[in-house]
Structures are given as structure tokens and as C-alpha cells.
Design goal:
It is built from 4 helices and no strands. By secondary structure, the protein is mainly alpha-helical. The relative contact order is 0.17.
Length: 162
């Protein structure tokens, strides 16, 4: 029974990551709204437009992650009820992929954040500077969110391998 408790803790942590993305997205949408009302410069317009698009993307990502974790939870709990050994084998395979993909995802996000920062520094258009700045914020925020996710991934994965 302890294994299923670790699984549920992991799933709840991932739902928390989804909630963080949802909150981050809501914050970006709020920034877009405030800049729509109060921002008059071209830079503010770029930040507003970027914040709106990124906010919607984060909002959808957060909701999507929560939904996908519910689905995984339901399927894996049914497998555990049927065959706990098969559940563990399945979870080790799934979590090995998740664990191996984490550094790759972080490298991609750091690369895009860096490229966006370079674009911000090189672009002369204030509107596009605003958009690139929001993209930097998006990727840095996701790097941080995924770092917290990795704590849950590592703890659960190590438990599975015992």
C-alpha cells in the first residue's frame, strides 16, 4: 500500500505544478490587462501582447497538466488494483522517461530564454523588445516551475527503484 501512497504524492505534486502554471498564466493575463488600460508606450504594447499570448498558453498548460495527471492517476490506480507488480514495472518505465526528459527540457528552455534575451538586446523595435522580454520571463518561469517538479520526480523515481 505504501507504493500507491508515493504515487498519489507524486501525482498531487504534478497537479501542483499545473496549478503553478495556471497562476503564472493568470498573472500574465493580469499584466496584459493592466498594460492594456495603463500602458501607452510601444514597449508596453509589446509586453501587453506577449503577456496575453503567454498568459493564455500558461493557463492552458496548467489546466492540461492537471487533466493529464487525473487521467494517469485513474489509469494507474486501476492497474495497481489489478496487479501491483505490473503497476510498479509500468511506473518505472514511465518515470524513467520522465526523469530522462527533464534535463533535455531544461536545456531547451534555457536556450530559448537565452536567445530571447539576445533578441531583446539586439532588436531596436520597442514592441518586439517587449515581446522578447515576456518570452524570457516565460521560459525562466518555466525553468523554475520544472525545477520544483523535478524534486517530486526524483523522490518518486528513487522510491520506485528500491
Amino acid at each position: 500500500m505504501e507504493l500507491i501512497n508515493y504515487f498519489e504524492t507524486y501525482i498531487n505534486a504534478q497537479k501542483g505544478v499545473g496549478f503553478n502554471a495556471f497562476v503564472f498564466g493568470t498573472g500574465m493575463l493580469l499584466v496584459a490587462l493592466l498594460l492594456h488600460i495603463y500602458g501607452g508606450s510601444q514597449l508596453a504594447s509589446g509586453i501587453r501582447n506577449g503577456s496575453f499570448i503567454i498568459g493564455i498558453l500558461l493557463f492552458v498548460m496548467g489546466v492540461g497538466l492537471r487533466i493529464s495527471q487525473e487521467k494517469i492517476s485513474k489509469e494507474q490506480k486501476a492497474l495497481y488494483a489489478k496487479d501491483p507488480v505490473e503497476f510498479k514495472i509500468s511506473e518505472i518505465e514511465r518515470m524513467t522517461k520522465v526523469k530522462n526528459n527533464y534535463p533535455k527540457g531544461q536545456i531547451v528552455m534555457v536556450s530559448f530564454a537565452t536567445l530571447s534575451l539576445i533578441a531583446f538586446l539586439l532588436i531596436k523595435s520597442p514592441i518586439w523588445q517587449g515581446v522578447s522580454l515576456v518570452v524570457v520571463i516565460f521560459f525562466v518561469g518555466n525553468i523554475l516551475i520544472e525545477a520544483f517538479s523535478n524534486l517530486a520526480i526524483t523522490a518518486y523515481y528513487e522510491y520506485l527503484l528500491k
